[in-house]
Amino acid sequence: MTSDTPWRVILIEPQTLLRTLLAKAINLDPRFILLADDPIFNAELVCEKDPQLVITGDVDTAELVLKNFLGIRILVLTDPNDLPSLKRLKKLGVHGCVEKDQPWEIVEEAITEILSGCNYVTAKQYQLLKQHDDHMRLIDDLLGPRERETLKYLAQGLSCQEIADQLKLSRRSVETYRFRIRKKLNIRNQARLVEFAFRNGLVKPSDIK
Asked: pTM of the predicted model, to two decimals?
């Protein structure tokens, strides 16, 4: 796909109001083209439209798409604090989850991350799963590879410029990764970043400056 070609999206959501609002927001973003929005799953429609992403509020729909349409990425809209659905979706291997009460900015971030090849869960969902012993296995879903590398170097005490030199990136890119890390982890200070990285095996005590 070229930079000028919009990503192809299908929206499957039984709640009329939510579906209408999401469809409007997607249509207003030139990066996306909404091929269809429907309250129920329709396999023929998915075959015909050939989307790159299906957004759905139904776990069973997500499972059907994953099993029958290889290559299509999935974003699932979940009810707040719905741990059973989150655990099932994680086991299924969906590419991202966002609570239905999140603002459009979070949904938009999830869409772009997923369509860029990453996985996505919100910080709130991450914390919920963390309480049920899935903490370690979910780090890869919460943070992308560059974010994990950036977190590792931040925890070691490196500045944004030093990290940029290590990763051969611009300082601005590293600052963006740092912002995303803090937002996703809901961490605002260096000490807690170090604690998180140490607790989850991203750094060793000998790495901390």
From this structure: 0.63
What does DSSP say about strands 53-56 and 96-99: parallel, antiparallel, or unpaired?
unpaired
> Which residue reads 């707040």 in tokens?
80
Given this structure, which CATH class describes domain 143-207? Answer: mainly alpha
**190 exposed, middle or buried (CB, 10 Å; 0-12, 13-18, 19+)?**
exposed
Domain boundaries, the chain: 7-131, 143-207
pLDDT tens-digit map of 99-114? 999 999 999 999 999 9
Which residue type sits at 180?
R
Burial classification of residue 65, based on how many CB atoms lie within 10 Å of its CB (0-12 exposed, 13-18 middle, 19 or more buried)? buried
Give the Cα-Cα-Cα angle 59, 61, 64 (nearest 5 degrees): 115
